[in-house]
Amino acid sequence: MEYMSCPEAAKKWGISERRVQILCRDNRIPGVSKLGYMWLIPKDAEKPIDGRTKQGKELHHE
């Protein structure tokens, strides 16, 4: 399997690198693993729905 780093995922998904790290830490991205201090995110991973927003909450409850 091919992986991308937090900065790569942040650029791909249009969110901050810190937000990607939080999503990894909270197990919100399937297939993620940690190598030392670096998160490995599957290249084909989808950006998780943002449960912090009204839109994200509506999508989450459907």
**Main sheet summary:** 3 strands, antiparallel
- Counting DSSP E segments of at least 2 residues, the number of strands comes to 3
The figure for the number of domains is 1
Mean pLDDT, all residues: 88
Strand order of the largest sheet: 1-3-2
- Overall shape: it is globular
Strand content: 15-25%
What is the CATH domain class? Mainly Alpha
Distance between the termini: 31 Å
Any guess at the CATH architecture? Orthogonal Bundle
Query: How much helix is in the residues?
Result: 40-55%
CATH topology: Multidrug-efflux Transporter Regulator, Chain: A, Domain 2
Gyration radius, to the nearest Å?
Answer: 12 Å
SS field, number of helical segments: 3
Quick structural overview:
This protein is α+β, with helices and mostly antiparallel strands and 62 residues long. 40% of the residues lie in helices and 16% in strands. The protein has helices at residues 6-13, 17-25, 54-61; strands at residues 3-4, 33-35, 38-42.
Structural features:
alpha+beta, DNA-binding, DNA-binding protein, single chain, 3 helices, Multidrug-efflux Transporter Regulator, Chain: A, Domain 2, 62 residues, 3-stranded antiparallel beta sheet, DNA binding
